[in-house]
Amino acid sequence: GQNIDQPTEMTATEGAIVQINCTYQTSGFNGLFWYQQHAGEAPTFLSYNVLDGLEEKGRFSSFLSRSKGYSYLLLKELQMKDSASYLCAVRDRNYKLSFGAGTTVTVRA
Amino acid sequence: DAMVIQNPRYQVTQFGKPVTLSCSQTLNHNVMYWYQQKSSQAPKLLFHYYDKDFNNEADTPDNFQSRRPNTSFCFLDIRSPGLGDAAMYLCATSTSDKNYEQYFGPGTRLTVT
């Protein structure tokens, strides 16, 4: 199984940078995903890491260290629309996803 | 646009009255998943179909059943809903062609009265 930990809440100011950390313990790592979920809506895919290092996609970047069981999602130039829950999900060798409980990010003007 | 569709978006049922939630997809993905997500909690996988093969999670209650009559459709049947089954139910699809990245539908919010 997987144990996935991420902070419950974070608050930041519009235009700032926020880093959401995720630590995991897994029995068979096969990739880590970050999803964005607005209240009452479905999760939408943000990023995918399977090898160590940084993946950059516009204002969003995700980092993975497999030896440390650690990932972070970096949100730059925060906008009000970035207020949402961010879910870290670990995939196992059977391609099943286990999700963290999510980090609620609130962006203030 | 290719997508994952869930109907209805909101469903109200009575305690103990069977209810069916539906999911359809135009992505032609061979894997379909059902998740349960309660407020402020992680989505929890209930079961998934790999093609026609049904894969139940060990801790999914017997009260939850699923059917997949063809590639495009998948149903979640709750035989006797309890108050604790009130949640958002998410359907997702994936395919090996896209490294099994999961595409989610908008979800069905189930209320049990």
Question: Main traits of this protein?
Answer:
heterodimer; A: 109 residues; mainly beta; 6-stranded mixed sheet; 5-stranded antiparallel sheet; B: 113 residues; 7-stranded mixed sheet; 4-stranded antiparallel sheet
What does this structure look like?
The complex is a heterodimer of chains A (109) and B (113). Chain A is mainly β. Chain A has strands at residues 2-5, 9-13, 18-26, 32-37, 44-49, 53-57, 60-65, 70-75, 84-91, 97-99, 103-108. In chain A, a hairpin with a 5-residue loop joins strand 9 (84-91) and strand 10 (97-99). The radius of gyration of chain A is 13 Å and the shape is globular. The mean pLDDT of chain A is 94. In chain B, strand 5 and strand 6 (53-56) form a beta hairpin. Chain B starts with a strand and ends with a strand. Classes of the chains: A mainly beta (109), B mainly beta (113).
Q: Please state the average pLDDT score of chain A.
A: 94
CA gyration radius of chain B, whole angstroms: 13 Å
Mean pLDDT of chain B: 94
The total of helices of chain A stands at 0
Shape of chain A: globular
Low-confidence stretches of chain B: none
Largest sheet of chain A: 6 strands, mixed
Shape of chain B: globular
Helices and strands of chain A: which structural class? mainly beta
The quaternary structure here is heterodimer
User: Which bin fits the share of residues in helices of chain A?
Assistant: under 10%
Can you give the helix content of chain B as a percent range? under 10%
> Number of DSSP helices of chain B?
0
Question: Alpha-carbon distance between the termini of chain B?
Answer: 36 Å
Strand runs of chain B, count: 11
* Structural class based on helices, strands and sheet pairing of chain B: mainly beta
**What value does the Rg of chain A take, in angstroms?**
13 Å
> Separation of termini of chain A?
40 Å
Our estimate of the beta-strand percent of chain A is over 45%
Series of secondary-structure elements of chain B, N-terminal to C-terminal: EEEEEEEEEEE
